[in-house]
Amino acid sequence: MSELGRRHGRRATTVAAVLAAVVWSLAAAMSVNGQDAAATDDTCGHPPVPVNAKLVRQGAKATFVCDEGYRLFGTESITCSPNGAWTGDLPFCGTNVAVHKPTNQSTTARGGNSGNANDGDSTTVHDGRRCTETLKEPSPWWSVDLLQPYPVRAVSITTRGCCVNWSKHSTDFRQDLNEILIPNLEK
């Protein structure tokens, strides 16, 4: 028995047991599901939340879900790093400003009218009523008039499931009459 134990009897044992329990509790708190405590506490504070989105937070991970009628662009989550900063690019929730707006195209084939491209039906099955289709021609085009200016951050195109040979590499996206190419087309 140590000198402390002989002088204070049972009290020294109780203090040692309490200290052991505190050390165990601290060790358990430092590892939650194998992650450092810095990654699960509030060192990063409340994460930024995109407009028109809801936050779902689990420890160090903040996941975003867009409100009804909006679509997520970018990665759905960011992470709290041990240094106290949120890492990852904040996504954004956008809405389709082109849906049901006036359209036009260079030619029409097999019932693939220009309005089929922005009627809100996102199916990839073309039965003559659901997709837009032009004749085979040197420079086919399709256009939509948004009727007013909008800040466009993303352009999304869904192609027919049957046509794997359609190449996005040959597609130009232009805005206004200046024919400015919209950069960063995902391939």
TrEMBL record:
Q: Which cysteines share a disulfide bond?
A: C66-C93
List keywords of the entry alphabetically.
Answer: Calcium, Disulfide bond, Lectin, Metal-binding, Signal, Sushi
Organism of provenance: Cinara cedri
Give the highest taxon in the source lineage.
Answer: Eukaryota
Gene Ontology BP annotations: regulation of cellular defense response; regulation of complement activation, lectin pathway
Q: Where is the Sushi domain?
A: 42-95
Query: Which purpose does this protein serve, as stated in its record?
Result: Acts as a defensive agent. Recognizes blood group fucosylated oligosaccharides including A, B, H and Lewis B-type antigens. Does not recognize Lewis A antigen and has low affinity for monovalent haptens.
- Family assignment? Belongs to the fucolectin family.
Carries keyword Repeat? no
List the lineage, top down.
Eukaryota, Metazoa, Ecdysozoa, Arthropoda, Hexapoda
- Return the Pfam families for the record: F5_F8_type_C_2, Sushi
Q: Where is the signal peptide?
A: 1-29
Tell me if Membrane is a UniProt keyword of this record.
no
Q: GO molecular function, one example?
A: metal ion binding
| Subunit structure and binding partners | Homotrimer.
Where is the segment annotated Disordered? 103-127
Q: What is this protein called?
A: Sushi domain-containing protein
